[in-house]
Amino acid sequence: PRHFRALQTKSLTRPPLGFAFDIDGVLLAGSQPIPGASRALQILNGDNQLNLKIPYILLTNGGGSTEEERARKLSSRLGVEISSSQIVQAHTVLKDFTQEYADKAVLCLGGIGNQMSKVAESYGFRRAYTTTDVLAWNSSVWPFMHVSGSDLASAKQIDFSRTPISAVFVFHDPRNWGVDVQIMCDIIQSGGVIGSPYVDSATRRDRKIQIIFCNPDLLWKSDFARPRLGQGAFRESFQAVFKAAELDRVNVSSRPAWKTDSSNDVGFDLFLLLNQSLIQWTRRWMIGDNPESDIAGANAAGWSSVLVPGVYDPTVGVRPTHEPTHIAQNVEEAVLWAIEREI
Ligand code: G3P
Ligand code: MG
To answer: What range does the record give for the signal peptide (predicted)?
Structure first.
């Protein structure tokens, strides 16, 4: 009660307070809620002695479905009502590209089947394709895998020999890295038209094919005992294969949605956008489990932060450049600690 009574008076006189929560490793382990996660959100949703509501968003390098779908799933799993406007995923930032690419053919990587093209279409991309569509067009693009009957049935009937690809958006973590690396190399080497003669570097530059990775996470915490390889590992493998094939390195604008290490100032565009427009708070707290993204992003954007175990392993520690404001055992403890600081 002391926390909230003081906060209530303070909240009337001081700028508003808000929280951003990472999802994997903080709120969920795989599909299961982490102990304390629901309670932490309920506290902020006003389930406290003073019914004081403190705004928050969920800010994740994850993705794979529309924000609406993700909000529905999270509300059901956590038993807390979360709206789609509170969800910022790795690929949410691709909404910025809809105007430029609405009617251009784009390849959407991640997930399975046509999941990512459906997300892209919900953003307004009208010619969004997947690697399943490419294999349905010509299975010899990747001789080691054949598209299942159900995926074939849902695949778009496109002649990619007559469909120049203008951009590759890695929405979410690819499932079959071999297929995706192969088709990305094809698109770059052939200047956008899969299977056509390779083009030289000057032509590639002229074609300006955008390659955007939405999530820089090398590792992420699921429900396995040790962190798992994430989209950042896929990017490393793509770039290694591309380089090893003696191709010049494409101008891979690894514009992750929002969380990245401090070396990539582009990555903070969305953090700054969140600072300036989406979030009218001036006292902001990020709660995450990955020092390389959650804490590095918060530190560089001037937010306070609390680190919880997940990707972060207390026996290993944290790099000096990625020190959080505080380290807590779990998200509920993190929320209460931060509130204590704000009063
Ligand atoms: O896509 C899986 C992973 O990178 C998401 O992680 O911790 O940002 O929710 P997180
Ligand atoms: Mg995480």
So the answer is: none
98, 303, 312 from 268: Cα distances, Å: 20, 12, 21
pLDDT digits (tens, 9 = 90+) for 20-56: 999 999 999 999 999 999 999 999 998 887 788 899 9
- Total-model pTM: 0.85
Q: Which tens digit of pLDDT belongs to each residue from 8-19?
A: 555 545 667 899
The C-alpha atoms of residue 148 and residue 130 are separated, in whole angstroms, by 14
CA 135, distance to chain mean position in Å, is 26
Identify which of 226, 221, 216, 114 has the alpha carbon closest to the alpha carbon of residue 175: 114
- The number of angstroms, rounded, from the C-alpha of 332 to the middle of its chain's C-alpha atoms is 23
Question: For the segment 240-279, what is each residue's pLDDT rounded down to a tens digit?
Answer: 998 887 544 444 444 443 444 333 333 334 454 454 555 6
CA gap 130, 137 in Å, rounded: 11
ipTM, two decimals: 0.96
Q: Return the closest-CA partner of residue 303 out of 322, 328, 286.
A: 286
Residue 191 CB contacts under 8 Å (≥ 6 apart), including other chains? 164, 198, 199, 203, 204, 207, 209
CA angle 339, 341, 343 (to 5 degrees): 75
Using most ligand atoms within 8 A of CB, pick from 89, 220, 228, 270 the residue to mutate for ligand 1: 220
Return left, alpha or beta for 84; rule: phi > 0 is left, psi -120 to 50 is alpha, else beta.
alpha
The secondary structure of 305-321 as a DSSP string is EEE-SSSS-TTT---GG
